[in-house]
């Protein structure tokens, strides 16, 4: 059991396991309605990162869960990545996490309990970084390994950040690089070059703490984290929810490795990319149509524990740049695009 390769036990990887936006819409489409709850500030009416419940004291409770199958072979790192990814939805609402509960599915006939212990230890290490207890959980015997967290957080209601409140003129920022789906697929196919081996894991284990700090800026109009639907998918959710369109500058989007394009050309494209594209490709336009396939493969690449996508007014931009530099995010201060008035394409890629 020393050299278990966790990804061999899973059919999908990380947020690439997510059900596509199109099928999710189908599942959630129902005439069975729930009575409205006046305390529910964010719920099923929008496609946001977490549910938000007004505690009637100026504060709201944020509640979210994320779990998936292994995206890396190392069990400790799998626990760290799944946990950083789950906690991210609290940061994406501008909140501070307070408490986490673990969700574990384990093929007990195939994988030793000691391997699951490592997953949970990885999770604990990230919870310590986030300053929250891992306070319990639930486990089942399942055909594939699954891990994730249910996380609660708190937010001052005036500082709550939604994903459907972007405004024309807002600049778009992204706090992590794009391409972890391509790199992890290249690794599975044995194509990944040595110098690229830890790039994806290292980035996926970084907490999006900057979200809590950005919540204090009123000019940050909208925020979400980029996960399984890819940068384009989450930007489309933001734009559609806000009743606006967006322009994305491909050359300004940071890619995780210089060789990302080579890996794409070698066929390292996760299945999730095309599932994403089938769902929303018709909402995307390209200025340079010759590059549309390459751009699609990078911009619709499913991310796991991706960065925060932030829509910020031009006036506030100057202030958050200072904060981002202090937080070590100077690489990501250049805007990747802009929100514009609604047009016939939801996102135009330049
Ligand atoms: Co999210
Ligand atoms: Co989520």
Written description of the protein model:
This protein is α+β, with helices and mostly antiparallel strands and 350 residues long. The chain folds into two domains: 6-159, PurM-like, N-terminal domain (60s Ribosomal Protein L30, Chain: A, 2-Layer Sandwich); 171-349, Phosphoribosyl-aminoimidazole Synthetase, Chain A, domain 2 (Alpha-Beta Complex), CATH 3.90.650. Helix content is 33%, strand content 22%. The protein is globular and about 55 Å long. 49% of the residues are buried. Residues 49, 89, 92, 224-225, 227 line the site of one cobalt (II) ion (CO).
Blueprint of the fold:
Blueprint: H1 21-28, E1 40-42, E2 51-54, E3 59-68, H2 75-92, E4 96-106, H3 113-130, E5 134-141, E6 146-156, E7 171-174, H4 180-188, H5 199-204, H6 210-214, E8 220-225, H7 230-242, E9 244-248, H8 260-265, H9 271-280, E10 284-286, H10 292-299, E11 308-312, H11 314-326, E12 337-341, E13 347-349
Parallel strand pairs: 4-5, 9-13, 10-13
Antiparallel strand pairs: 1-2, 2-3, 3-6, 4-6, 7-11, 7-12, 8-11, 9-12
Helix pairs in contact: 2-3
Bound molecules: cobalt (II) ion (2 copies).
The site of one cobalt (II) ion has 6 residues, from helix 2 and strand 8.
